[in-house]
Write a structure and sequence with these properties.
The complex is a heterodimer of chains A (282) and B (219). Chain A has 282 residues and is an alpha/beta fold. Chain A has 2 domains: 211 residues, Rossmann fold (3-Layer(aba) Sandwich); 62 residues. Helix content of chain A is 32%, strand content 28%. Chain A has 10 helices and 14 strands. In chain A, strand 9 and strand 10 form a beta hairpin. With 219 residues, chain B is mainly alpha-helical. Chain B has one domain. Chain B is built from 9 helices and no strands. In chain B, helix 3 crosses helix 7, helix 4 crosses helix 7 and helix 6 packs antiparallel against helix 9. Chain B is globular. The chains are: A alpha/beta (282), B mainly alpha (219). The interface between A and B is medium-sized, with 34 and 28 residues.
């Protein structure tokens, strides 16, 4: 559905160099620290900024050949941008009806009611959670095949985040659709995404299925002596600690079986990204 | 473009304070019975034409423009929408000022000079088109807030330039009043046609520049 091949964007002190693919039927997560390049990658895909190299394809069409009508099939949520806060929800309904040929007004109103969004109140008076829910409703009520969501859960409490994630799961139940979603709250992505791209300093440092990260990746906690005697074939990164060495592995079962005495912790997205960014090569 | 125009209209209608100001000013004009037709027409037209600046400021605020460009509209649609909005607002302003002028006249029970009114409207119409041509590229390049400052500087420089030219003509003992009286006022139809073509050309040039600015803009 979406393919980025060596997409480059150069700024004075930052360079994006990104290759990613979002397949039909997949929810793909993009994780990274603030300033890692997530938003730049999104803006490149959406044509909001010019790129200095590489190729972007959406629905098999080059971005340069993408017409404004083609954007009907994409639903977008940007964390730092949306309709003006001066408008009310009822004001944006005729706007959406005019721009999207498949805008489903009934569904929009139903979802606003479900999410307790008042139609007659200025958006600037909404809470962070309400604004995010409105943005998501706008993105999913015109029969888009691809959602591009930049930090949809930013600044929200657990309950509000859950409601967003439930809406995304429901969206994926219909037809061949796909979602590209970024977040720095890895817990949201662990339970939602089929695969994860990790980005740091503008570069993709890891791409893996979420199941594989959760089942095969792990952190080994070793004393220096244990580390010296360790088979390092499946060690990706190491980090010096007070007690000795932490090691990131993509084969935690291998070490559990062959080194019964060592501590093997579960590798969540947070710990994997921390090691991938802050660790050294073994 | 239709969706963007609806959005701009909703934004303007949401700004109740502005309409209150317009109503107060109109009321003051009606009560005091200012009879300077050109003043009423130009003031109200200017007020309406600059509404487009308000819509651009709202679009820039909180980077709303980034989201708007993810909707199925092109950057060209956005630019076209602003020009269409500005011209429609200008026409509404002129229409309202005509109504107001007639109303003031009826209150004062005076003799309406329809020729003067028509002439004022035509002059203001073309002047506002020139104003839009200068205004929009500046606003789109520098944004709503910075654009205002730059626009103010442009207006000051233009006035200073015009004053300089008039002083120069005076110093050189050149009297161009004959040009105004015989060529422009004497040939109303010809003047309107020439004005139409000059402002049309200027507007097209301005539109092309605005499109270029938007195309290059990083959102």
């Amino acid at each position: 559905m979406l393919k980025m091949t060596s997409v480059k964007k150069n700024y004075k002190d930052f360079t994006l160099d990104c290759t990613m693919e979002i397949k039909s039927g997949y929810i793909t997560g993009l994780v990274g620290r603030n300033g890692a390049g997530k938003t730049t990658a999104f803006k490149s895909v959406l044509g909001l900024i010019s790129v200095d190299g590489g190729e972007i394809e959406i629905f098999g069409k080059k971005l340069s050949d993408f017409k404004s009508r083609d954007k009907e099939k994409i639903g977008v949520l940007l964390s730092d941008s949306g309709f003006s806060g001066e408008l009310k929800v009822k004001d944006i309904i005729p706007v959406l009806s005019a721009v999207y040929s498949q805008f489903d007004k009934e569904d929009f109103l139903k979802k606003c009611k479900q999410m307790k969004l008042p139609l007659n109140k200025k958006i600037k008076e909404f809470s962070t959670g309400m604004k995010a829910r409105l943005k998501l409703i706008i993105a999913i009520t015109h029969n888009a095949d691809l959602l591009i969501l930049d930090e949809p859960t930013a600044g929200m409490d657990v309950m509000a985040r859950e409601s967003i994630i439930d809406m995304l799961r429901e969206y994926m139940e219909h037809g061949q659709r796909a979602i590209l979603i970024s977040s720095h709250i890895s817990g949201d992505l662990e339970g939602l995404c089929d695969d994860i791209y990790m980005i740091d300093n503008g570069k993709i440092i890891l791409h893996q299925d979420t199941d594989v990260i959760l089942s095969s990746y792990g952190i080994l906690k070793l004393r220096d002596e244990e580390y010296r005697n360790l088979d390092k074939t499946h060690i990706l990164k190491i980090k010096k600690e007070n007690f000795g060495v932490s090691c990131l592995t993509d084969e935690k079962q291998f070490y559990s079986d062959n080194y019964p005495g060592i501590v093997v912790e579960r590798g969540g997205i947070d710990s994997v990204i921390t090691m991938m960014i802050g660790g050294e090569n073994p | 473009m239709k969706g963007l125009l609806i959005k701009d209209l909703k934004l303007i209608l949401s700004n109740k304070a502005m309409f209150l100001i317009i109503l107060v000013i109109m009321g003051m004009i009606a009560v005091t019975g200012v009879s300077i037709t050109a003043f009423v027409t130009s003031y109200i037209s200017l007020l309406f034409t600059t509404m487009v600046v308000t819509t651009i400021s709202y679009d820039d605020y909180d980077r709303c423009i980034s989201f708007l460009m993810t909707l199925p509209v092109s950057r060209k649609d956005y630019v076209r929408g602003k020009y269409v909005f500005a011209v429609i607002a200008e026409l509404c302003g002129i229409l309202l000022s005509v109504v107001l002028n007639i109303a003031i006249n009826m209150i004062k029970k005076g003799q309406m000079d329809y020729n003067e009114l028509l002439f004022s409207c035509a002059v203001i119409f073309f002047m506002m088109l020139v104003f839009i041509s200068v205004l929009l590229p500046i606003q789109l390049k520098f944004g709503g807030e910075h654009g205002r400052v730059i626009l103010f500087a442009v207006v000051i420089l233009s006035v200073a330039g015009a004053f300089g030219v008039s002083q120069l003509l005076k110093a050189l003992n050149l009297d161009l009043n004959w040009l105004l009286e015989t060529v422009i006022l004497g040939n109303a139809v010809m003047s309107a046609v020439i004005s139409f073509f000059i402002t049309g050309l200027l507007l097209c040039l301005s539109y092309a520049i605005s499109n270029r600015i938007m195309k290059k803009r990083e959102l």
